[in-house]
Fold these 2 entries.
Entry 1:
Amino acid sequence: MTGAAVSLPTRRRPSTAALVRTTGFVAMAVAVAAGVLIALAGAAADHVFLVPALKRAFAGYVAGPLAPYGIVTPLHVVFAEVAVMTVAYAVVVACASRIPLWWIGAAVLVLHVAFLLAPPMLSTDVFNYIDVARLGGLYHVDPYVVHPAARRHDAVYVFVHWRHTVTDYGPLFTLAVRPLGRVSVAEALWVFKALAALAGLGCTALIGWIAHRRGGSAARAVAAFGLNPVLLVWTVAGAHNDLLMLLALLAGVALVLSDRLAAAGAALVAATAIKLSAGLVIPFLVLRRAPGRLRLLAGLVVAAALVVAISVVAFPDHALGMFAKLQRQEALVDIGSVPLGLAYAAGFARIVPRELQVLHVLLAAWIAGWLVYVARGGDALAAAGWALLGVIVTSSWLLPWYLVWPLALAAATDRRRLLVATCAVGASYAIGHAPLA
Amino acid sequence: MSTEFYSCRVRRSGGGHPPRVTIEPVRTVARAADLLLVAFLVCLALTTAAQLRHNEAAGSRGHAPHDRPVSHRIVR
């Protein structure tokens, strides 16, 4: 009898790539689930901390379309969800190169929709935007001169936090929102929410394109920006106009990479005319070692002249009012700012203007160093990202949505250290602002 | 993802043999950048801890973050 050879089927160990892909998918699912739970916790609208607009009055339209599905959640559980979302985000970014781009894009889209439909969370700034729109579009007064308290009877006033300060946003933003002054507060609120979500998606797409154009991983870039908790929970949910500024800025960067430099100059000036912070990126792009510098400068100069001319016509009383407001803002000290934390660590009860001036000198040296780096052939976008992070870290007025500025450049340039440093500052803010039990 | 810089080393050989050329990564700048990042993270952790201690000491009535109940005033 002939013995037949029997071979047992060998179990093949999953490859490392498959393990990484599976881990990434699981982490992405966890991040999406945590994000949706956070949005639903906000929609329950039972915490002034989560929805600060409800401190003085309650309106059904502020709670939003997710209100019937809101999940009443203790604040410490919400913060745990943010922590879980952050860890899952880090895992997704680490594994992103093995995950198909369209899966990451789908996760980004789901989370943007969730936070679009959630109430304005963790900030009341959107109501200041509505007030600016109504001051200009409804009452035909100059928001750089007239503050919200001058129109106490207005329907939006009850939700406004900054009642005795004039606007510090750029003239392009202040002019562009005027039409929203003629609609109801509810309609204006949800238009601003939609604009922020669309801008967030647009920024994510541009970041992926820029990363791919530079030879990096579009999937990792999209994950690093589009799934970031600071972007989603604070910036998209809060409908911050930083996303509108960033959209114009990233469009300018994309145009630079496409060698359409005059148009790039116009886009960069538009970004600066929405919010002044974008202007910090311009010198880095001008100094970069690449042909066409004159065309970029020409675009910048022409666009800047146009913006100044429009501002003088539209705001004859105070066309450059935002600069005065920004000077006053620098005197403010936020409880989550790094300088104040340093003061506490050194045993001081507060930080004084003289100490802030020291930080400003250090910041100037930091920015100058990165400009020299670019002039000698370094990566202009990465350098601009580090400069923006330096501005945020040394500012006494730290607000988490400012972190999307360096986050965008960290994601687009695939700079691990810049991404880690930016996310760490975000975590520090979140921990420092966790409410007492 | 970290940036690495490369240097070219030329080792002379005796006996008329051609010199050996090797290209090796120089990680000095990358290591310094990593050290700076770690130092920054440590400083950030210390400031965050100080902030938390201050919040606890300030209490719910002091200059520290705390929650409040939603308003009962309804507007339309």
Entry 2:
Amino acid sequence: MENFTPVSAFSGGLMIGLAAAVLILANGRIAGVSGIAGGLLSPAGGDIAWRMAFITGLVLGPLIYNAAAPETLSITVTRSVPVLIAGGLMVGFGTRLGSGCTSGHGVCGIGRLSNRSMVATCVFMAAAAVTVFAARHLLGS
Amino acid sequence: MLGAITALAAGLILGVGLSVSGMIDPAKVLGFLDPFGNWDPSLGLVLAGAVAVSIPAFALAAKRAKPALAQSFQLPERRDIDRRLIIGSVVFGVGWGLVGLCPGPAFSSLALGMWPTAVFVAAMTAGMALYRFLRI
């Protein structure tokens, strides 16, 4: 457990919850990134602006963090191109089929005390853990 | 207009939160998903912090007739646990476990201009488009 960062994890989590709070109380929308992005692929009239604004903010966020705390952000992606493509396709397809992702089901759905979302969260967490186990401990990657 | 501003603010707060918590880093996420390895429980605390705020926020929203800047709440209405939910969640989970990126962190880390993230986001977009195209 040498990488455990409880304080930054919890405080970052509070911010994530705050983002969901702002979007539901101000805009009346679920802060589910897969749904917000997916909705851009089939937009109803007048529905695009808030989605584009949200995703723009999402992309700008780390830049603000970088400005406030330079050289502290670390992102390590070590996967090959085929795995990146396979993973991306599955995340894109699966989140649309399953009606949500970690922010949609995990933060907002659980926030609403939705059984659907609690089940979905358990399922995708378990599937992810099994996948990591297979990749790391069976295939050695 | 105001709605676009609050949506932008929400996105910014989410992007900063993902950065502060470390959830933007696939290595940190994969560390949580690897209890048999060098387990990093941080993601558990991230979720705990997030729902600590989201539960009261949604409780407050449930008491309101409408949101501050829109005509109505746009909330999912389904309550059943069906095959699409389960299969979709499995597929999503496997993809997430393969790379350690889910949609929020994927978009956020585009800011840092690393090509693997761009490849992942392009594939993720294609996966979403495929779902729409197949009209399942």
